[in-house]
């Protein structure tokens, strides 16, 4: 696109005849009005066609997470032998103390023979239970956990095990006070142990954000979790496309910011190279070089800048993709694809759901922290470079301004005193240096331009300009 808006010599002359200047050697929008209509149309079409790519390329391939709806019950060791201590009230509702407006239902069939037939259940240890059901999305069937002892502050199946299960835990039990007294303190699923584990995991996440950890305090990079869904209602919720576009909106914004960021470095480095013509000889850098000339940079900038900027842009795009992303969940019950609303509960209104899958927008707080941190580093890098970068004295700044470049190409020497545009066959293929070709003074106007011969440094206080009739002090 930069090459399409690069002006030809005729286009520059036409612009100068109307007292306008164009950009040379950098991306420019102001050049569109001065270049040929064909190139302008191609530039516009190329720009418009590339915008949709940023909205969809990150979701061309996406994952649909399978989640199983299960029933999970925690019971005392004497559950299968002593049923007299259980007092079950039909129609009773226990409200969850962890989630507002959500509740754990007491199933009427909890104590029926279907559930009390111990051949239907597997007695597993705490470690086995944690290994099977610790993932955010459960993929195993029903199970019974029989702790050796209990140390629960509240006998609430959902609130006590919310760190293990992200969905509703249905089929919970209501225990009378005598069962509490029947248990003793000891090992089990301990609140203190979970808190210590949470602190350890949180510290590991903060120290190693580049890894995809799944902790109790932060959501890992790109990790899908029902606790990390964005509450949003889109008008065309029955289609996946709106959620794809919304999830990739930050990618498009980042691309436009990167173009501006890259353009600023291009302008700074172009002026720096331009200024060096006043201190040492160098050949011209052109798009289509002839013998004795240099070509433009492959990545628009010197490798010492282009490669770090490219890596920085790629990492920023990756951090964004791991921060906000498309979330699709397919819910299975007893191996059959089912409606996800009973499983997702309060998140149902956030996205589109059907018998196939739930579609919404997920986010990762760990990814957002990494994205903001890396974005801040990139901004600081720009500020530091712009303040530290120096420009050799002598040549007036304006290495991307066509008027400044044109003035430096009008040759006039001490002998003939006439102005002429340096012909390509004369010096365009030779090493050039910018300097004084015709001495000036406080009352006499001199001239500075590119030359293949010897040049002098301008003297402060002397006059240098173009044609005498248009000369001004500089």
TrEMBL record:
Recorded hits in PANTHER family, A to Z, give: DUF6536 DOMAIN-CONTAINING PROTEIN (PTHR35395:SF1)
The transmembrane residues are 40-57, 189-209, 301-320, 366-385
**Coiled-coil ranges per UniProt:** none
Instruction: Give yes or no: UniProt keyword Transmembrane helix.
Output: yes
Source species, domain of life: Eukaryota
* Keywords for this protein: Membrane, Transmembrane, Transmembrane helix
- Any matching Pfam family: DUF6536
This one is known as: DUF6536 domain-containing protein
């Amino acid at each position: 696109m930069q090459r399409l808006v690069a002006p030809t010599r005729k286009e520059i002359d036409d612009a100068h005849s109307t007292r306008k200047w164009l950009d040379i050697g950098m991306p420019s929008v102001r050049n569109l009005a001065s270049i040929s209509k064909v190139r302008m149309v191609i530039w516009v079409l190329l720009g418009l066609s590339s915008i949709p790519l940023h909205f969809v390329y990150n979701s061309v391939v996406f994952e649909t997470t399978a989640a199983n709806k299960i029933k999970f019950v925690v019971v005392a060791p004497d559950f299968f032998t002593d049923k007299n201590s259980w007092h079950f009230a039909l129609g009773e509702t226990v409200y969850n103390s962890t989630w507002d407006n959500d509740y754990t239902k007491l199933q009427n069939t909890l104590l029926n023979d279907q559930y009390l037939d111990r051949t239907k259940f597997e007695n597993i240890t705490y470690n086995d239970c944690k290994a099977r059901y610790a993932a955010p999305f459960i993929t195993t069937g029903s199970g019974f956990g029989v702790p050796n002892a209990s140390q629960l502050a509240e006998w609430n199946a959902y609130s006590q095990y919310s760190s293990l299960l992200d969905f509703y835990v249905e089929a919970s039990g209501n225990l009378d006070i005598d069962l509490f007294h029947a248990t003793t303190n000891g090992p089990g699923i301990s609140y203190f142990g979970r808190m210590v584990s949470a602190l350890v995991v949180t510290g590991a996440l903060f120290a190693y954000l580049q890894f995809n950890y799944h902790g109790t305090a932060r959501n890992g990079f790109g990790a899908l979790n029902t606790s990390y869904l964005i509450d949003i209602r889109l008008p065309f919720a029955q289609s996946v496309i709106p959620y794809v576009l919304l999830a990739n909106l930050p990618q498009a914004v980042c691309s436009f910011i990167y173009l501006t960021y890259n353009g600023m470095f291009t302008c700074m480095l172009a002026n720096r190279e331009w200024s060096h013509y006043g201190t040492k000889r160098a050949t011209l850098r052109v798009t289509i070089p002839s013998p004795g000339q240099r070509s433009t940079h492959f990545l628009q900038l010197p490798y010492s800048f282009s490669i770090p900027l490219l890596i920085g842009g790629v990492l920023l795009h990756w951090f964004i993709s791991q921060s906000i992303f498309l979330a699709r969940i397919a819910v299975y019950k007893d191996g059959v694809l089912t409606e996800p609303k009973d499983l997702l509960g309060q998140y149902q209104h956030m996205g589109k759901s059907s018998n196939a899958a739930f579609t919404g927008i997920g986010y990762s707080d760990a990814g957002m922290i990494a994205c903001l941190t890396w974005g801040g580093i990139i901004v600081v890098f720009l500020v530091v470079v712009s303040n530290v970068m120096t420009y050799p004295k002598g040549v007036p700044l304006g290495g991307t301004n066509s008027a400044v470049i044109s003035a430096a190409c009008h040759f006039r020497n001490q002998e003939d005193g006439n102005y002429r545009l340096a012909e390509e066959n004369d010096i365009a293929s030779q090493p050039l240096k910018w300097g004084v070709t015709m001495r000036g003074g406080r009352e006499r106007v001199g001239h500075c331009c590119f030359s293949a011969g010897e040049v002098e440094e301008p003297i402060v206080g002397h006059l240098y300009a173009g044609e005498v009739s248009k000369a001004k002090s500089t």
